[in-house]
Amino acid sequence: MSLFAAIFSLVLAACSGGAAESPADEQSESVRNCPDGPCEPPPPPPPSCPVTTSLSATPSTIAQGQSTTISWSASAPSSCSTPTVVLSGQSVYRYGSMAVWPSSSITYSMFLNGASIPVRSVTVNVLPALCSSVCWAGSACNQACTDAGLNVRSCAQVGVCEACSTSVCNGASSCDTQCTYNAAVTSCNGWSHDTADDADLDGVPDTLENQLARLFFPTLRLRYTRVNGSGPNGDLGQLYSGAALVAGGTPTPGNWPFIVRPVTPYHDTTSIVTVGGRVIRSGALQQCLDTECLEITYVLPYNWDLGETSWAIHDHRGDGEMYSVLVTRTDPLKSVGGESVAARWSTPWASAKADANAWVGYTEFGTAHTCADYDSTSYRNRIFRPSVDGVTTVWVAQGKHANYFSREACDGGACSGDVPFGTPCWDNCDSNDFALVYGQWYRDAGPLRNAGGDTCHSHPSIDHYTAFPGSHPSYYSYASYDVWSDTLFGDDDVGRPRALLLPHTVLWWADSHPYSCWPGPTSFPGAPPEPPQPVFNPAPPPAPVCGQSGMCCEFAADGSCSLCAPANGQCP
Q1: 251 to each of 241, 446, 477, 523, 529, how far by Cα in Å?
Q2: Domains in the chain, ordered, with CATH?
Q3: Positive or negative, the Cα torsion across 140, 142, 145, 146?
Q4: What is the pLDDT of residue 105?
Q5: For the chain, which ranges sit under pLDDT 50?
Q6: Is residue 136 classed as helix, strand or coil in its secondary structure?
Q7: pTM of the prediction?
């Protein structure tokens, strides 16, 4: 190869990228890319335009009715275009401030140049109005307000609100309404308790409610021996505060809630017809006005429904039963056949509210598989004064605890040809050998507890709690169960205490189905953690001595035999 060819090859290689281009080469390249002549150099990059922004609310927390100042700014270098600013939907100048009076907490946002995402936000917290502007002698004590230190209070807490009165504390709906009494803030139920002895605001003195509950509580005829795999004391052991659940133990813990409330039932069957010129009158009008009638409802809680093992009727945890009685101070029978009749008894409210013996039992109700299969609910009219005629005896079906007003009714209860093995009835009281007379069995106040009302039961004098059933028939009830909670009582939904205690559960004097079947519970929190069960001496009590027959017909409270069968005979 000649020297010229070698040099030409090196130059050609350099031009094809084999070596770095010189500035002259770059200029030659731009010339080559612009066929009409030399190209202009590319423009310099645009200058950087950062926008500096600020947004604030001063103060950021206010009381309703006060103002706050919103301040903002947006600036960019002089070489940049002026930014556009939108503040919470309103176009504003790039800087400025304004006073606002928001009625509730609100967030203000700042947007630039039409963007949809805010660059800054600030929140103004709005508290209730100042106490000085909303609290006065007639304002509600639970009215929320804000003090000078921006602390949320109530008119009661700053000591300026309405005085307690019957217009302020008007019925159970005002139970927890606050008001002032003797220069102090209290609740309506506290004021009513202190001035009218009426903590549940139902218009009936609590002392009268408690006296009536004891006076009209029925005698419970129960089985006091083993039944369906129970402990030694049978159904009396399953009844809260009845007898020992297991040998050597103590009575099953738990209260018996009750309520006393005024009711105004009305029932008119009056019929007046003319046949052949003859007027035939029939029917009657029964009516309770104002405080003429009171409803007393007792919940009888059992640890377990023991079922009926003979006919494979299942047992279940928790068993709420009920007895209710309508008591009157004035005869409800107003007319017969459309003609007025004289009252057989009548006591003015002023006297009756201070005298439990002025009240007369009139109609009774007892649950027996109520709102369930084989419903045998007991309902009857009976006019009685406990101090003269004695209280009602309620026969409690063994194992199942259904309530009847006679042994015969119990033995014929829960009847259906569909019961297993074709047996027509599976309630019976054949072995109900114990009569629980409240005043004899409980020397002190006993387990009866006033549960107040469904909407007013928060005063400390009202006890609306009982115990939760144990997880086994031989495990004690435990923990605390609010009888006004809409939750299962163990596994019992129909017999949960709230459903038994609610107003209008008993429909007095209804022509048919004189009671309401409420919907199931609304809450299912499950059973509370169960504590370890105590271990008792399993030895049974000594057998009673009954001569040659070996049979005891009735047991005394200490477990001894109080009535024996004749030799080789049967119990009377």
Answers
A1: 5, 12, 10, 29, 21
A2: 3-33 (no CATH), 52-127 (2.60.40.10), 131-196 (no CATH), 206-533 (no CATH), 542-572 (no CATH)
A3: positive
A4: 96
A5: 1-32, 419, 538-544, 548-550
A6: coil
A7: 0.72
